[in-house]
Design a protein that fits this description.
Blueprint: H1 2-16, H2 19-40, H3 53-83, H4 86-90, H5 98-127, H6 135-159, H7 163-180, H8 192-198, H9 202-215, H10 223-245
Helix pairs in contact: 1-5, 2-3, 2-5, 3-5, 3-6, 3-7, 3-9, 6-9, 6-10, 9-10
Length: about 250
């Protein structure tokens, strides 16, 4: 436990020193609130089913926060440590390389949760965002969303031979996800073609589930989203685990 706490503390310091991770986890989603809020306000409109643009955008921006840590920060940290043979050196210790990976997961998930809380707090304070769902519904939806996106990040780290490749793959997946899934621009104003394309992206189901959870929809309304994210989580974790077992430097 002592070794794990030291590893977690180290990973937390490394995260805090990474400007991109800190900015896009905490500042960027908040800026999106002020940009869209400054332009459109948050008045109810039929386009969003009687909700304001920020009522549907704030839960969607949770996808931005999860995407930054799950698709960028976490896989790049793993890829960097593999490239530097950090895991190989830890094989000679009682802790093993799994200790570092677990510490990276914990730190990034905690930062994700803090980023989500900051995002929601800003929305509530600045634009009185309406949250009709209960914490009992919203929290599990957020945790399942985190698991789904992080499993993809782990897979990216497992197939990337070095940091440069991981960075390229992560950036490609991240920006496709956030711009075509409704995580930035509300999917309600997408043309039908883009809406259909969005349904092939895992982030779409994160955004859809979080919006329904915030709107207080019945649990059955997100059952399909939850099923898709569960399959994604299990599938990518299994694939990553099998690939990691074949990596001699892990």
């Amino acid at each position: 436990m002592k070794a794990f706490m030291r590893a977690t503390s180290l990973e937390a310091r490394l995260f805090s020193r990474n400007f991109s991770s800190v900015f896009f986890t905490f500042a960027f989603p908040t800026l999106m609130i002020f940009i869209f809020g400054g332009i459109y306000g948050n008045k109810p409109t039929p386009v969003f089913g009687g909700l304001g643009i920020l009522d549907v955008s704030v839960p969607a921006y949770i996808g931005l926060v999860i995407g930054v840590t799950g698709l960028m920060s976490f896989p790049l940290s793993v890829a960097e440590d593999r490239e530097r043979r950090v895991y190989k050196r830890f094989r000679a210790t009682p802790a093993g390389p799994s200790l570092i990976v677990l510490a990276q997961v914990v730190v990034n998930v905690v930062m994700t949760i803090v980023g989500i809380l900051v995002l929601v707090a800003v929305g509530l304070i600045a634009y009185h965002v309406r949250i009709r769902g209960s914490f009992v519904f919203i929290a599990p939806a957020a945790l399942l969303s985190i698991a789904g996106i992080y499993s993809i990040g782990l897979f990216v780290a497992s197939v990337s031979p070095n940091m440069k490749t991981a960075n390229a793959i992560s950036n490609l997946i991240y920006f496709i996800m956030i711009f075509l899934s409704g995580a930035t621009v509300p999917i309600e104003i997408f043309p039908s073609t883009l809406k259909n394309i969005a349904k092939f992206l895992p982030m779409y189901y994160v955004v859809d589930m979080m919006k329904k959870a915030f709107a207080g929809k019945a649990f059955g309304s997100v059952s399909f989203d939850a099923a898709i994210l569960s399959v994604i989580t299990l599938g990518f974790i299994l694939a990553a685990f099998l690939l990691y077992r074949e990596k001699t430097d892990f």
